[in-house]
Specification:
The structure is a single chain. By secondary structure, the protein is of the alpha+beta class. It folds into five domains: 201 residues, Immunoglobulin-like, CATH 2.60.40.1730; 109 residues, Zincin-like (2-Layer Sandwich), CATH 3.30.2010.30; 133 residues, Neutral Protease, domain 2 (Orthogonal Bundle); 104 residues, Sandwich (Immunoglobulin-like), CATH 2.60.40.1840; 125 residues, Alpha Horseshoe (Zincin-like fold). It contains 26 helices and 31 strands. An eight-stranded mixed β-sheet has the order 6-5-9-3-2-12-15-14, with no helix packed on it. Strands 25, 26, 27, 28, 29, 30 and 31 form a seven-stranded mixed β-sheet that branches. Strands 17-18-19-21-20 form a five-stranded mixed β-sheet, covered by helices on one side. Helix 6 packs across helix 7 and helix 12 packs parallel to helix 16. The longest helix has 21 residues. Tryptophan (TRP) binds next to strand 20 and helix 2.
């Protein structure tokens, strides 16, 4: 992909294939203490039709060229130009294959960006997506250049007894001087971003999976020394993922080995390198003492996600990085479906929708807004976003809804058949469903190119005489992203007409305007449509957008009485939850509009009773009841308010709601909290749901009693991390500074100081504590001997959590929270720009705050933007945020 003239933006419209075709890659990586020598031989050929004098231009990033040979002969310097960013070779043959041998020298120890080849606790490890391979050798480093790789690794046998790469192991042996080697062969064509090597002294957990056609696959999870037993749950999740992909999508694994490596220093969650997934160890290592139920669910999801990429991402990859959602949105959809099947569908859906609203909606409604398939970027690392991943998954979900389950599967089958081995585009993906299901998705495709969250306005009117109910749907999109027209989109709207007996009513229906209706699905395609339902015995309760069937802001003119009825009656459990959530969000949003210190009730008694009724209903899944009890996040309320937000008032309102609910339901919360303990720990969804409910109850009863005794008792008696950290969070967040809280925090530190993953929780918990003095705490913790800017998990735990989750101290009116974060980001940017840019996105909401904070935030952003030598990553985020 060429950069445009300003050298800044890359545009989808400029896509063209490479001038040279790559037929194969042969690499030797010689690893030494302090440096590595990389010898790469590329078999290339000028593409038919390309001008005979067109040079070969390879990408590099901070590279030093050591040697260059063409078909075995050293190239004269007149034939090439090498800079750290590019290698240009001229005078190459007009046709026929040639071999270019490139020698580079790199320093993994000095690589703090964790892109390319780096070292993590002594382990050599690579990360190449999106553009990391060019930090190892000069290459056509783009996803549409596919080739088979043969990789030889050489290293000291003691430092690195384990030598891994993609594909199958084919050869290994000893070398002089205590060194050894291994050769790996990956027969599948792949792009460079899926390349991986790992070398080090690692422990191994092994298992086996027999595929549906009877092939044996050797499974291995490699961990740091002594931690292999903590990979047992990840291994279990891996085998369940492999079986699920066979059952649900007919997808079988394709190599003889599948390896996973867990490492401590990693920029994101995990990476789907062919046959050699590399993980942030946070998503592999756990047991009941160190991990929460949320951590277990996270491991299961991420293991599944990376495994599923083998088909959606690896066998079929992306033509260019604009198509990122082709693999990410689809793979998130697949991992969400896996978790829904393995756990409880409604509870999983509630979790996914909460996540979408907490991360994607604010992105889509602020200055960092971009389409699911962007049309341009300055730094691709900044497009691994909630929009590409989570909204991308929603788009796939809508295709499944529109096509229906059977035809969706046919479309997926066609996609795998038609594009296996290729680098594909969104258009090609969509065409598979059009062809397999015989539907027209041309209007639907707008979802990929129009940014922003559409609003779906719904109104109803009941005619008592005629016994008809008219439902009117209207869609609108706020003009936003430059260059995207605002045409009506295709909105699949699942619904039901709920009767007083809690059952969906059948009714004859007629449609007028831009929509179609079939069974329980309205598909709105115009700006507006009305549906007239006839033959109803009495006025129904309209349950609309069931299961969140489209990623829209729902603006349903519905009274409190109807919502209360649906919270009780709706046979669609997701919407029962949403009815409650809408009632509570609505109340808290409204109360937040009143001035700080206002003491009028923030939530009506009827709503409190409805919440307590759901939470106390033993006929419902405990995990669902815990979801019902989880109040909307303060950031979510702030987003709904939209302008002139005072975070202190929002915090005060949420606190008041917690107190009101806790006080009214105290007896019930005591009962629910008492139901907690299972004799034996099991991480399954049902047990986790019971713990979630008990911990939610503990939160409310602690708020009501306004004393920490119950939380302290739970902290001390805890036999698993969920209960222990659940109690500690209540102490640190509701009773900050109290002697018993400080003692518990110290105790936690001493218990777990040997485990970095648990220490991250200790840092994060304190960073999130919602009181003014938390700024002084994080300043102190940034000077703690265990704090380091070099470990992304640790930085995220302290700086990231403070910036993203502490609505009180980060937003201190004096701006000191903003300035501290900016100062840390400026320092971090010189170490790891991917992480500094990611954390900086928290500033994007600056325009929505009240005047004082708005100007403090803007000033902080402007100061950041003017720092000399800012990374492209951080500069891009700051500039777009200010736009
Ligand atoms: N492709 C990875 C996934 O979603 C994520 C990823 C992209 C990544 N770039 C990365 C992981 C850089 C680590 C570092 O599964
Ligand atoms: Zn992914």
């Amino acid at each position: 992909m060429q950069r445009t003239e300003d050298g800044q933006t890359v545009k989808l419209a400029d896509y063209r294939p490479t001038d040279f075709v790559l037929h194969g890659v042969d690499m030797t990586l010689m690893l030494f203490e302090g440096h590595a020598e990389i010898a790469t031989t590329l078999t290339l050929e000028r593409r038919a039709g390309v001008a005979a004098d067109a040079p070969l231009v390879l990408d590099g990033d901070e590279l030093i060229l050591e040697s260059l040979a063409l078909d075995g002969e050293t190239l004269s310097p007149s034939r090439y130009v090498a800079t750290p960013e590019q290698l240009t070779v001229t005078g190459l043959a007009e046709s026929g294959r040639f071999e270019l041998a490139i020698g580079t020298r790199i320093a993994p120890e000095a690589n703090s960006k964790l892109m390319g080849l780096f070292r993590s606790n002594g382990i050599w490890c690579s990360q190449c997506e999106a553009e990391g391979f060019r930090r190892i050798t000069y290459f056509l480093d783009r996803p549409d250049v596919l080739a088979p790789y043969r990789v030889r690794i050489e290293a000291d046998r003691t430092a690195a007894p384990i030598l891994l790469s993609n594909g199958n192991p084919v050869e290994a042996g000893d070398l002089e001087g205590g060194r050894h080697f291994a050769v790996w062969d990956d027969p599948f064509n792949k792009p460079s971003y899926l390349f991986a090597v790992v070398a080090g002294d690692l422990d191994l957990l092994t298992d086996e999976f027999v595929t549906m056609s009877g092939r044996r696959v050797a499974l291995g999870i490699y961990t740091e020394k002594g931690r292999a037993p903590q990979a047992a749950y990840a291994m279990d999740a891996l085998k369940r993922s492999m079986a699920w992909d066979e059952r649900r999508f007919g997808r079988e694994y394709d190599l003889d080995v599948f390896n996973v490596v867990a490492i401590a220093d990693f920029n994101m969650g995990a990476m789907e390198n062919k046959g050699l997934n590399v993980f942030n160890h946070k998503y592999v290592l756990l047991d009941q003492d160190i991990a929460t139920d949320g951590d277990y669910a996270g491991v299961e999801t991420v293991i599944a996600h990376e495994y599923f990429h083998n088909w959606t991402g690896n066998r079929i990859t992306c033509r260019d990085w604009f198509q990122l959602c082709l693999k990410e949105g689809l793979t998130v959809y697949r991992d969400q479906e896996f978790s829904a099947d393995e756990r409880e569908r409604t509870v999983q859906r509630i979790g996914s929708v909460r996540r979408l609203k907490a991360h994607q909606f604010p992105e889509d409604q602020g200055p960092l807004q971009h389409p699911v398939r962007p049309g341009e970027y300055r730094e691709i690392n900044n497009f691994y976003t909630a929009t590409v991943y989570d909204k991308g998954a929603e788009l796939v979900r809508m295709i499944a809804t529109l096509a229906g389950e059977a035809d969706f599967r046919k479309g997926m089958d066609l996609y795998f058949e038609r594009h296996d081995g290729e680098a594909a585009t969104i258009e090609e993906f969509i065409a598979c469903f059009e062809d397999a299901a015989g539907i027209d998705l041309s209007q639907f495709a707008l979802w990929y190119v129009q940014a922003g969250t559409p609003t779906l306005a719904v109104s109803e009117s009941w005619d008592d005489e005629a016994r008809t109910h008219v439902v009117t749907l209207r869609q609108s999109l706020v003009p936003g992203a430059a260059g995207t027209g605002i045409q009506p989109m295709v909105l699949p709207v699942r619904f039901g007409l709920v009767g007083g007996n809690g059952e969906d009513r059948d009714a004859a229906a007629s449609v007028s305007g831009g929509a179609s209706l079939k069974d329980d699905l309205i598909v709105l395609t115009g700006r507006e449509a009305s549906i007239t339902f006839t033959g109803l015995p009495d006025r129904p309760y309209l349950s609309v957008l069931r299961d969140f069937s489209a990623p829209v802001t729902l603006d349903h003119e519905q009274g409190e009485a109807d919502r209360l009825a649906l919270a009780r009656l709706d046979p669609n459990l997701f919407n029962r939850w949403r009815a409650l959530d809408d009632l509570i969000s609505g109340a808290l949003t409204e109360a937040s509009g009143r001035p700080l210190g206002d003491t009028a009730p923030v939530i009506s008694e009827a709503v409190v009773e409805a919440l307590l009724a759901s939470a106390g209903d033993d006929g419902l899944d405990p995990a669902f009841r815990a979801q019902a009890l989880a109040l909307p996040g303060e950031a979510d309320i702030a987003r709904q308010i939209g302008v002139d937000v005072d975070p202190d008032r929002v915090h005060e309102v949420v606190d008041a709601a917690r107190l009101a609910i806790g006080t009214r339901g105290l007896a019930m919360f005591e009962r629910l909290h008492g139901l907690a303990a299972d004799a034996h720990f099991s991480p399954d969804a049902a047990s986790a749901g019971r713990r979630a409910l008990a911990n939610a109850a503990l939160g409310y009863l602690s708020a009501a009693r306004q004393e920490p005794a119950a939380a302290l008792a739970q902290y001390e008696a805890a036999t698993n991390m969920t209960d222990r950290i659940g109690a500690l969070a209540i102490l640190a967040h509701r009773f900050p500074g109290e002697a018993s809280t400080e003692a518990a925090l110290d105790d936690f530190y001493r218990r777990f100081e040997g485990d970095d993953l648990v220490l991250d929780k200790w840092f994060a918990l304190q960073a999130a504590a919602p009181f003014n003095g938390a700024l002084e705490t994080v300043i102190r913790l940034a000077g703690h001997p265990r704090f380091t800017m070099r470990n992304p998990n640790r930085v995220r735990a302290l700086v990231g959590t403070f910036a993203a989750s502490n609505q009180v101290a980060f937003h201190r009116p004096d701006g000191a929270g903003y300035r501290w974060v900016a100062e840390k980001l400026a320092a971090l940017d010189r170490i790891n720009p991917q992480i500094s840019a990611r954390i900086a996105t928290t500033f994007r909401a600056w325009r929505s705050f009240e005047r004082g904070r708005r100007s403090q935030l803007e000033q902080t952003l402007r100061q950041l933007s003017e720092i000399k030598g800012l990374s492209k990553d951080l500069q891009d985020i700051v500039d777009r945020s200010l736009k």
